[in-house]
Structures are given as structure tokens and as C-alpha cells.
Amino acid sequence: MHAIRGQLNFSAFSVPSVFKSILGIGVLLTATSAFAEDPAPPLHSEAPVELPTVTVNGSRLADYPPISPADLRGGGIAPTEPPVRLFFPGSGYAAGIAKGQATVCVELDEKGNATDYLLVAWTQKYFGEALLRAAQDTKYAPLLFKGVAVPSRFNFGYEFTPDFSVPMNTFDAVERRELEIRGGRPDFKYHPVTEAALDNRLERVREAVPHFPAGYTPVGGKGDWVVVSLYIDEEGHVRVPRVDSASSPLLVRNALLAVHYWQFKPATVKGKPALVYAAFAVSFIEAPK
Q1: What CA–CA distances, in Å, run from 127 to 100, 120, 149, 156, 240?
Q2: Per the domain annotation, does 289 fall within a domain?
Q3: Percent of the chain predicted with pLDDT > 90
Q4: Where are any strands of DSSP class E within the chain?
Q5: Within a domain: 97
Q6: Does residue 5 fall inside a structural domain?
Q7: Is 167 exposed, middle or buried (0-12, 13-18, 19+ CB in 10 A)?
Q8: E strand or H helix that includes residue 135
């Protein structure tokens, strides 16, 4: 999988000499996995396949309010890019598949440059590979949070439909089509899971704590925390993290730099490697003088 990785700035966070438990620095929040039953057509938009979203116990939800859409501007596919129109893979025609879906998460820096691509869901692998190639050839726009450019994540989703009729040449193909007509969910062969589905709890084997950035005055309490959603790939690496809750755009960069340093023990589901979606509440410490 194609990935572009930048160097970490260790002045933005501290690395503990002794690693703490998973409930140490970051508090793991509950997350659920959901997929849209009626996806939108291909557009310059968020993924038609809904990615897992952060859910928090009701008594704590107010502690981590999501960033208001009114405070965000830009991000996603650059407005100068042409409409996304991808060819239906020949393998889909051969298999008699009438529709396919895939989602790629694209990590963007403050200038809108892609720094990582992660294929997170597909109904058939060739749909995912086609979308990944398209995502790598696409230009993106920077995201502004309260007028400040910040690193972000774009969920690039696409629904593949054939340009002409697809012969239903197998019983399975006919059965899939009938399921689609009845409104059944797409049959995702690959998708992220949450901690509840794992054989064992997530185990962090390397971590770091972000420093308060220059120019930021701590307000105390939960107001100085951020919530970061992220994916943990099959090798335990943190991929395409995004700050979903923060009181100030100044906190975003250091939080993501620290989280990128984290490493997890590879997770499994029934003994098989798994892509995991998780969210953490992350606190900051004062930078050394």
C-alpha cells in the first residue's frame, strides 16, 4: 500500500521511559462501526460508506464536543479537480456483480498535501485497488479550523456502477442483486473493526504525550484535551489519525504528531490480523523549559 510518511518532530511531545497501560495517557472511547444502507452516488464528498464514528457514554459526551462544522472550511478534494468518474473493473463484469463500493482514507497536512493513504473498506478487492489509485492521483484542499490550516483526514468513498448491463451468470450473482434490491447492506469483504470485536484488548507498546504548543494558554480540565480518531493497521501502526474534538486549532498538530509515534501490538479477530478503528481522549503536558 502506498504511503508517504513525514519525519516526527520530537519537540512537540515527550516519550515516557516506561510505557503505561492502554488507559494511561489516552482514555479509549467506545466506537461503533456502521455502514450506510443507501449510499449516495459518486460525488466530491465524504464516503458513501459510513466509517465508524466515535460514541461516548452519555454522561461524558459533553466533555468532548465534536468540532462544530461552522468552525471548519475547505478540506477534501480540491475544487479544481474534475468530477470523479471511475471505470467499472472488468473483474466485476466477469463475476456478474452489479455494484461495488470502497473507501480510502487520505491523511492531509496543513497545505492539503496527501501524506498517507489507507484502504479501509471494499466489497471486492479490485474496487478498493481502483479507488486507491484514483485517490493517489487526486489533489486535495487544506482544512481550516477557525481560520487556521490544520492536518486532516478525508474519507474518499466511491460507489462503482457498470456502464452497461451486467449478465447474472451465477446463482451467487443473482442472489446478491436480489439482496441489493431488497435494501440489504453491501457485502463488505474487508472493513475496520472496533476493539469489541478483537480477540484481546488493544495493547499500546510505544507511546508519547503531546506538549502544549507555543502560544496556547491552558484553560484546565477537559478543555485542554482533544479526541483523536485513528486506524491501527495489521502491523500495529497508527494510520490516518484525525482530531475530532478540540477547543483550539493550536492543539491539533502536536496531538497528531504524538499519536503518530504510538505503536500497538497487532490485533486479531479469531486469530486473523485486523484493521482497527479506535478513538482516544488525549491530554497534554507543559513543554520542558
Answers
A1: 6, 12, 32, 13, 20
A2: no
A3: 54
A4: 13-14, 26-29, 31-32, 53-54, 72-74, 100-108, 114-122, 143-145, 148-150, 152-160, 204-206, 209-210, 226-232, 238-245, 263-264, 268-269, 272-273, 276-282
A5: yes
A6: no
A7: exposed
A8: helix 125-136
Could you tell me if residue 164 is inside a domain? Answer: yes
222 touches 283 (CB < 8 A):
no
Say which residue, 158 or 44, is predicted with more confidence: 158
Three-state SS for 71?
helix
**Count of domains observed in the chain:** 1
The boundaries of the domain holding residue 273 are 10-282
Classify burial at 245, counting beta carbons within 10 Å of its beta carbon; exposed 0-12, middle 13-18, buried 19 or more: buried
Q: What is the pLDDT of residues 159-184, one digit of tens each?
A: 998 876 444 444 555 555 555 555 55
* Cell 492536518 sits on residue: 151
Sole residue written with cell 492521483 = 137
Q: Grade residue 45 by pLDDT with cuts at 50, 70 and 90.
A: very low
Residue 138 DSSP SS3: coil
